[in-house]
Amino acid sequence: MTASANLAALRDTGVWIFDLDNTLYPASCNLFAQVDRRITEFIAEHFGIPQPEARERQKRFFRDYGTTLRGLMTEHDVDPVAYMDYVHDIDVAGVQPSAVLAGALERLPGRKIIYTNGSVRHAENVAGRLGILDRFDAVFDIAAGGYVPKPDPRPYATLVERYGIDPTRACMVEDIARNLAPAHALGMTTVWVRGELEYERAGVGAGVHIDHTVDDLPGWLAAVADATADAVP
Ligand SMILES: [Mg+2]
């Protein structure tokens, strides 16, 4: 199959599901690094402990529960709304509006949904800055998923049911490879936005099925939109 035929096969995609952080904007913006620091500060304040100790605790929660919030809720009954507001209080000026991404999303057929382990407010803040917020039909956030984070399969099932998604005609785009495993299990096409970090790469070539590996998401989506348009008789 040629590259464009490969992309044209995506023309039947009825729903595009996009992760937000380090997917719709590049990790080089260092935006998520700000969130990461805010999480450390939250833990330091909440427990009254020094930052290095808070950092250790954060890493343990992330490792044991998939997200720091899940660990804080499970072990310490932390209020998720207060946490989300605190950690997403960041400066998005480092994110550059992307005309290529906005144009590609405009031309791409199918519904588009943001699916994030963050909050709706964070998604609106970042997608607004990117100039793509109005390209999306919905944001499915950690609250919508009952505060159960990806890659637990349960919120994926909730997402599919809530939006009446046919998984065999859905495509999920993510930088954390292991978050694609439940999507593939449901029958979705999987797109990995190649990440450099260890936790982003975990599972690649070792159990996580990836249909498309992408380095430049705006460029790739533009190519998909072109291939899709070419494929229409
Ligand atoms: Mg991400």
From TrEMBL:
Source taxon at top rank: Bacteria
InterPro entries in the record: HAD-like_sf, HAD-SF_hydro_IA, HAD_sf, Pyr-5-nucltdase
One family from Pfam that matches here is Hydrolase
Q: What is this protein called?
A: Pyrimidine 5'-nucleotidase
